[in-house]
Amino acid sequence: MTLVSQFLDLAEKHLPRFCYMVDNYYKSSELLKFQIIGQSVFCSYEHYVVLYGEPNVNLVYQIKDNYPSFSLSFNKKWLSLVFDHFTKCNLIEKSVTTRKYNRFLCMELNIEKFQNSKFDLPKLDVVDLDEIKHGKILDLRRIMKISKGLGGSGIIIDNELVAVGFIPHLVTNDRFSLCVFRDIWVNEKYRGKGYGKLITYHLCLKAIKQGVKRIFLWVEKDNIPAIKVYSKLGFEIKDEVYSVICSFNKEQI
Asked: In this protein, which residues make up the domain named N-acetyltransferase (predicted)?
């Protein structure tokens, strides 16, 4: 069995955890690096690195310092090994104040539950961001995200973007049918009004309309309000991943 076959088999069995890497692989397969030693897995794509399975220091050494920093995701069992061998670790989601690392819940939408439920949602229009990308409402970063996957949706009040969400990761082929929601955000002044729920609901409709079979998102475990919103819409917790942005500590090699 080839390394590619091993990667795809592993990803298919643990898709909530590997949904990002599957999307990366189909974008540019030659950039994917993959290695298995026993029950331990190393996987990287550009500056995104995954350590999975049983902790193994030999796989830590597979991470080269080709970049000033890189995004690292790993299971809880890797925690002590990671902090023994990496330095200058920074948070991906900055809202966390009690830890030096993020804990993300990998959630998947129960599509049948979503389709069979009725939701209490704000009576507001949700716009396709592609329709307004030439205006002054979106910054360049968000304009760039619109071109990926299934684009994004937003709520505009008084010519101001007050809520937004994107589906930049999309894979539809004979083996996989998946998408990943990202960067769901509500302006601080408008939180608690159901706008995040409304945006996520419309993203779900958009993905289902396109025939996507599996829909994922990751959310910081400390973000209890968001987790409650996603759960009410039919998202279920499937896995948990630890993440940091860090650089290699050469003195530990």
From this structure: 109-253
The amino acid that residue 138 corresponds to is L
| Strand, coil or helix: 82 | helix
Cβ atoms of residues 81 and 55 within 8 Å: yes
Q: What is the pLDDT of residues 53-85, one digit of tens each?
A: 999 998 887 775 555 678 999 999 999 998 888
Q: What are phi and psi of 47, to 5 degrees?
A: -100, 15
Residues 111 and 13: their CA atoms lie apart, in Å, by 19
Helix, strand, or coil here: 12? helix
Q: What count of other Cβ atoms lies within 10 Å of the Cβ of residue 98?
A: 5
Closest CA to 167 of 151, 144, 178, 155: 151
In the three-class reduction of DSSP (H, G, I as helix; E, B as strand; rest coil), residue 95 is classed as coil
Structure tokens at 196: 């995040």
Collapse the DSSP code of 177 into the 3-class scheme (helix H, G, I; strand E, B; otherwise coil) and give the result.
strand
pTM check: above 0.85: yes
Hunting for tokens 């026993």 — which residue is that?
38
Query: Strands 70-74 and 48-53, how do they pair?
Result: parallel
User: Which residues are CB-contacts of 253 (< 8 A; sequence separation ≥ 6)?
Assistant: 61
Paired residues of 246 in beta bridges: 70
Per-residue model confidence as pLDDT tens digits over 136-153: 666 656 666 666 889 899
